[in-house]
Design brief:
The structure is a single chain. Helix content is about 45%, strand content about 0%. With about 300 residues, the chain is mainly alpha-helical. The protein has two domains: about 5-115, DNA polymerase, domain 1; about 140-305, Orthogonal Bundle (hpI Integrase, Chain A), CATH 1.10.443. It has a three-stranded antiparallel beta sheet, covered by helices on one side.
Length: about 300
């Protein structure tokens, strides 16, 4: 139970302090930034979603996650938004068992109450839980080879190698289009991540992955522009058969961590690993374009001579 992570309110929450009550901090009071939500019926999930997309420039996946957390919160509280108080938020957050879910839920609630509704009262006292450092146990190359052999089809084998050799995020790879991959140069330039917090730039795949992609694409007879057409409901269990067969838990996130660790072991500087993984800000990329140009990064990537399945 995460109730110990919930801060105490600075003052008791009362019906007088609730939404649309005339309190100075509410939408009708002196601290309000605009008059977006003067009436309760003006608020909607659709409007919130559009606010996340247009005003905050969040990615489709982030919007989908925020909306999902808000829907679960609303279902649990069963009260009109305009009547909600910090006590309702506290009761729900205290109910959650996972630090990660707590943090994601609080982030979504802040987007809703503080940013969209312009009514921070229900969420302003809550803090994010401190992240607990846990040493990561990464798979060996032997583990990766055994896991790869247990994957049942060419598409997911190629997908596995793209994750392991590019350092891209799960969502970035699954939304890649064929025209975003140059197989001759083994170069990937994702155009899909337009969110404000993710900064895909350019990445690459190794020779193993390039050959696997060519073999996989040779079997494709469809005209779907996506590189890896996978139903959304199957996204989180992409390698389920291999996990069962090997007893190893290897996910796209595991492969991203493995990539970073392996590239560092091969002598690649952290700043270039960050650029390949989309962790470098656009302002830095612009100011230091010579250092981070696709040609320069490919030179660094190729020099590392990354191998996933062999030494």
């Amino acid at each position: 139970m995460l109730s110990n992570f919930v801060s105490k309110p600075t003052k008791p929450e009362t019906p007088e302090n609730s939404f649309f009550s005339g309190d100075p901090g509410g939408p009708g009071g002196t601290r309000t930034h605009d008059h977006r939500l003067v009436k309760s019926q003006d608020w909607s999930i659709e409007g919130f979603s559009e606010f996340l997309r247009v005003d905050l420039q969040l990615s489709k996946e982030t919007i989908r996650d925020h909306v999902g957390y808000i829907r679960r919160f609303l279902s649990h509280v069963s009260k009109p938004v305009q009547a909600m108080t910090a006590e309702d938020v506290r009761a729900y957050l205290g109910f959650l068992q996972s630090r990660e879910v707590y943090a994601h839920t609080l982030k979504a609630l802040r987007r809703l109450f503080r940013d969209y509704l312009r009514y921070p009262g229900p969420v302003e006292t809550f803090k994010f839980p401190e992240q607990v450092f846990k040493p990561r146990s990464l798979p060996s190359k032997g583990d990766l080879a055994r896991f790869y052999a247990a994957i049942g089809d060419q598409k997911r084998r190629a997908l596995f190698l793209v994750y392991a050799s590019s350092g891209l995020r799960r969502s970035e790879v699954l939304t890649l289009r064929r025209d975003e991959v140059d197989l001759d140069r083994r170069t990937i330039i994702p155009k899909n991540h337009s969110g404000a917090t993710k900064r895909s730039w350019v990445s690459f795949v190794n020779d193993e992955t390039g050959e696997a992609l060519k073999s996989y694409l040779a079997t494709r007879k469809d005209v779907n522009p996506k590189l890896f057409p996978i139903a959304r409901k199957g996204e989180k269990k992409i390698f389920g058969d291999a996990m069962v067969a090997t007893g190893l838990v290897i996910t796209p996130q595991t492969l991203r961590f493995w990539f970073c660790n392996e590239m560092a072991r091969l002598g690649v500087q952290d700043r270039f690993i960050d650029a390949l993984c989309g962790r470098t800000s656009k302002s830095v990329l612009a100011r230091h374009y010579t250092d981070y140009s696709p040609d320069r990064l490919k030179e660094i990537y190729d020099k590392a001579d990354l191998k996933v399945l062999s030494d």
